[in-house]
Amino acid sequence: MGGSQIQYLIAIILYITAVIEIGVYYAKRASESSSNYLIGGRSLGPWITAMGAEASDMSGWLLMGLPGVAYWIGLGEAFWTALGLAIGTYLNWRIVAKRLRVYSHVANDSITIPDFLSNRYKEKRKVILTVAALFILVFFCVYAASCFVTVGKVFSALFDVEYQYIMIAGAVFVVLYTFVGGFLAESASDFMQGVVMIIALSVVLIAGVSHAGGISNVVENAKSIPGFFEFFGVATPSVDEAGKQIVENGKPLFGAPGEYGFLTILSTLAWGLGYFGMPQVLLKFMAIRKSSEIKISRIIAIIWVVISLGAAVFIGILGRMLYPASLLTQDSSENVFIILSENFFPPILAGVVIAGILAATISSSDSYLLIAASAFSKNIYQGLFKKNASDKTILNISRITVVVIALIAMVIASDKESIIFKIVSFAWAGFGATFGPIMLFSLFWKRTTRMGAIAGMVSGGVMVFVWKLFVRPLGGVFDIYELLPAFVISCVVIVAVSLLTKPESEEVLNEFELVKSVKEILKKNNIPRGAPARRGFFFDLLICLQYDN
Known about the structure:
CATH superfamily: Sodium/glucose cotransporter
Structural class: mainly alpha
Shape: globular
Radius of gyration: 23 Å
CATH architecture: Up-down Bundle
Mean pLDDT: 84
Distance between the termini: 59 Å
């Protein structure tokens, strides 16, 4: 191991040590109850909620996948993807966050997404709960795999170690960390990791622009590649039979540019729809200590997302201008952030910057493992098989599930040619189409029925697979991101089945109206803001709202 690699290692070890300290700090509280382990006792402040939601959402995809797309085919797809995500982030915080925080508390103090959906419709036979939990398990296995691929790519590139070995080592570290600290440790470390990520992106961007001689220089050079710096076009790298870009006289070759038409743009913007169904984000909404603090969290989250996404896209463009022939395959293009960091900074500082990738990976994978574990332990094991299971048993089952899900994810991630962007896009579509429509309808449409919810989840989740594997390969108008058609179909099915089935019970409908009209209820019952609350339901409701405006 050379001197540079030793310095990289020192910086990364220091970072990992800080993360472990957080896990150890929260270990005792996490072990007190399954509620603390899985949702932190609804005690998150606005900064941790905002940064935790965004850091766990973006993952290593932000520092590797998105810059890799920009490096390989240019601005078009990366820009529209980032724009869709930014819009989706805002709408999710603006529309969903507060209503879900209140409703999840009213609906039997639900602490998982399947719990909430099941309690929302007062299920006796836990069909919604089971379907939701199974989809979470399936798609989070894929999501966790994308994180392990990121770890493998980063460290095999840095230390010239076999991909599979380092991928497994990284996965083991994440599992141990999640196993000990639970939701509170995950959320606190997500805050730290969100800070590291945005600093790393900003520092590399500023250094890159400086090395390139200014933004105008970068733009001018990017425009020299056909379709590379266009909003409505896409570059087409010329590749050989092995998928490696052809280089002549030190210059990579490109074919005729492709078009980025209206349907493709709409399809790419559909990334934003995924936010409405992302469990790792929705869970943060449920865990914030006061619904009145959501506005602060929203502002923080939007600023973070816009800066981070913009920097990630431009880093990919910068990489192609500065090192045009360094990354000649689509999967290797996702190392552009690493290449820039290694060349811009002394090894010890480069190690700190590259720790941003590790930060992104840990912040996401621990979230994915924890939510998948809760889906099995709370919703399947306790919900279906062992209703009287003790809290300690649930806690132990959650930890065992973390290990099992990680093992499955490691198998999926074992292919070193995996492309992070593609893995994430599929899992993102799965969650967006399965849970996005039903979350929106459950929160905002009173007429939604239990059967409509079940049909909507199943049709959305299944259509992601059908469109990805059988329809999209047909090309032409069918070559659109699977999230869009699956989301639309799920919405149509929810409405149709709900209208064809009888309305829910008065209890369900009244609870919906209660959440919708909470301010009027407080006023009618003469419970002023700041006054001691009555005991019973209104006391619980006020605790939830924290005298919110």
